[in-house]
Amino acid sequence: MQKQKNRTPEGLQAAVRLPKNDYNKIQHLIDAGLYRSFADFLRDAVRDKLASMEVVSVKDVTAQEAEHMIEAYLEAHPGPSFASDIADVLGLEYDITFKTIHKLLEEGRIKKAKK
After folding, report:
1. What is the pLDDT of residues 39-91, one digit of tens each?
2. In terms of C-beta distances under 8 Å and separation of at least 24 residues, what long-range contacts does 77-84 make, across chains too?
3. Would you list the DSSP string of 36-99?
4. What secondary structure letter does DSSP report for 114?
5. Average pLDDT taken over every residue of the chain
6. What is the distance of C-alpha 59 from the center of its chain?
7. Neighbours of 88 (CB within 10 A)
């Protein structure tokens, strides 16, 4: 009796049909050395698409907690920051982030970035 090897597949396969124009564009990128193969390009494209669609969870925090979180973020990341980026990174609702930043600006606890 033969022993079967317990192999775990590295990944699953998915076939895809592409318009000739897209196929040629990808082949051009491979020929230019930007990707090793079609599979390499497609894996990268799928990862990018999935990352862009990732759901952002929103934390339920008080205004005071939001103030501390935003101040800590700005101290750790000096330089200009967009309020929407801060909200995304910290998982805060946009509304509370914008209100909190406005309050911190009014109180002089943070400064507006120069244009």
Report:
1. 999 999 999 888 877 666 678 899 999 999 999 999 999 888 999 999 989 99
2. 79/113, 80/113, 81/113
3. SSHHHHHHHHHHHHHHHTPPPP-----HHHHHHHHHHHHHHS-S---HHHHHHHHT--HHHHHH
4. P
5. 88
6. 17
7. 14
In the block, tokens 């109180």 appear at 107
pLDDT of the residue at 31: 96
Contacts of 46 (CB under 8 A, 6+ apart): none
**Alpha-carbon span 111 to 94, nearest angstrom:** 19
pLDDT at residue 40, as a whole number: 94
- Residue 31 sits at φ, ψ, to 5 deg, of -60, -30
Residue closest to 43 by CA, chosen among 20, 71, 17, 14: 14
Is the pLDDT at 15 greater than 60? The verdict is yes
Distance CA 114, CA 101 (A): 16
Let me know: does 83 contact 102? Beta carbons within 8 Å: no
